[in-house]
Amino acid sequence: MLTVQQRHIIAATAPVVAQHITTITTRFYPAMFDRYPEIKPRFNPRHQQTGAQPRALGQSIVAYALNYDDPIARDAVLAPITHKHVALHVQPDHYRIVGECLLEAAAEVLGAAFTPDVRDAWQALYWSMADDLIDGEERLYHDQERRPGGWRGFREFDVVDRQAAAEGILSVTLAPADGQPLADFLPGQYIGLRLKHDGHLHYRQYSLTGQPGSATYRITVKEEAHGQISQAIHHGLTVGQSVHLTAPIGLLTLDRRTTPVVLLSAGIGQTPMLPLARQALAQGRQVTYLHSTRSPATLVFREELESLRAEYGDRLLIIHRFSHEDPAGEPSGRIDRALLEDVITVDKTPDCYFTGPAGFMSDMNALLEELGIPEAHRHYECFGPLQLPTS
């Protein structure tokens, strides 16, 4: 709990910290990895190279500080972080490591402005945030463990099937190695995966693309040019080998309502959309499914979507857009305002879900806001570090 004086110090220094926070977090990660190399595998190196991870950490700290006195807004900042952390099996001692290195980085960047009183105030704020996250994560771990077929931490799974889903995209089906019951999941949720590669453990998260209620999980993975683990899954993970998974987690889920649903995705961001479409249609809702990808060759789930359209008819509208010229004559281009205006009936206040690259998500968030879709009806999932779509 922060003292009154510490709250005043946070309020007075927040603009300066916000101005330098990305510099602080960018310096923090290499220092932490050098001092605590055992923690490095939990972070995707690509997200370090692009700066996405430092930006995301900086955003979350500043957002927590600015919303400290608003419990609802504060919880909204923390909720997706707790789910990401549970997928990584983050433990309380990790917060000690992060806090130690983060405050040292802040002192290096801010210099004389980071007085003992300022340091104490921001340290208290960090531990307030850390304690909130630790408590939230423990509740999620407890819930995962108690559900039928559930577990805490990592559980061994065997690869039982591999199927090419599209050009450069692979679907992998996984079954519990112990043969025991499997926890169900909500459409839109994801799992954490731990894979040993080149003698080291690596951690990633993947959306579940199979059917809830089955005896297996399915993930669908795009091979990335600079993706060490996506390449290992594509070229080294064979039937009979094993990986370790955390139980399903994630907030990109449907409420049981009657409002229309609009699903917007680009690239491999499509992975949570198929389960969401199935569920929304089963609830009796109208579904508009818009997906943008490079070409028809990279389009996944086409047969499954066509099966849904055959079953549900006019209640499912599917539109694909291809960013490269399509010789087959299918519509090319990207999802833009004109297309959204054509297919979204704003006065029915649809629930809009969007996933994909950061630029796509920012564009969709801004366009939906321009079209009058309230923030409460704009739902998104970040693949990788949590960053708010700008609008």
UniProtKB/TrEMBL annotation:
Domain Globin: from-to ranges = 1-138
Give the reactions, separated by semicolons, that this protein catalyses: 2 nitric oxide + NADPH + 2 O2 = 2 nitrate + NADP(+) + H(+); 2 nitric oxide + NADH + 2 O2 = 2 nitrate + NAD(+) + H(+)
According to its UniProt entry, the protein's GO biological process terms are: cellular response to nitrosative stress; nitric oxide catabolic process; response to toxic substance
Q: Which GO terms describe its molecular function?
A: FAD binding; heme binding; metal ion binding; nitric oxide dioxygenase NAD(P)H activity; oxygen binding; oxygen carrier activity
Its cofactor is:
heme b
Every copy of the FAD-binding FR-type domain together lies at 152-255
EC numbers listed for it are 1.14.12.17
Pfam families in UniProt = FAD_binding_6 (PF00970), Globin (PF00042), NAD_binding_1 (PF00175)
- Record's keyword terms, sorted: Detoxification, Heme, Iron, Metal-binding, NAD, NADP, Oxygen transport, Transport
Q: The organism sits in which domain of life?
A: Bacteria
Enzyme class comes to oxidoreductase
**Hey, which family's this protein in?**
In the C-terminal section; belongs to the flavoprotein pyridine nucleotide cytochrome reductase family.
Summarize the protein's role: Is involved in NO detoxification in an aerobic process, termed nitric oxide dioxygenase (NOD) reaction that utilizes O(2) and NAD(P)H to convert NO to nitrate, which protects the bacterium from various noxious nitrogen compounds. Therefore, plays a central role in the inducible response to nitrosative stress.
Official protein name in the record: nitric oxide dioxygenase
Organism equals Larsenimonas rhizosphaerae
